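WARN retry 2 of 3 for item q-0093 after timeout on previous attempt; input resubmitted unchanged.
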Amino acid sequence: MLKEFFINLVKEYGYIGIFIIGFSEPIFQPFPVEIFLATGVLLGLDWRLAIIVSTVASNLGACVTYFLAVRYGEKLMYKLFDKEKIIKGRKFLEKYGVLGVVIASFTPIPFEVICWVCASFEMPFPKYMLAVFISRLIKHSLAILPIVLGKKIF
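OK item q-0093 returned
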């Protein structure tokens, strides 16, 4: 139901829909932005602007997550997410540090869990934001690359 709502949000509101979805992903929402980003591009949105909007929105959402997690800590995180996912996320970040945020974009660990774990365990904010920006830019770009290349080939 939420997935259909997001697809309709992109269909009806375009970049604003992508922004809302991108903003909510690092906070709580379980669906990767890339699904809806690709939908938007297939519907005719400019891929460059769509990437910028989704990346900026994800970073703003990651700011909210960081401050919520620092303020409310592990208690809120354990209410929002499965304990097993939090433990996996924490071990992953302990092993890879800041690079772990970038790597996490390409693992089954949900991005919102990584963001909450980073903040709960107080990763320095500037490093966290840089890592989120790089990870989202790469992930969002790679997600629509086949669509962009397909349009140029055909």
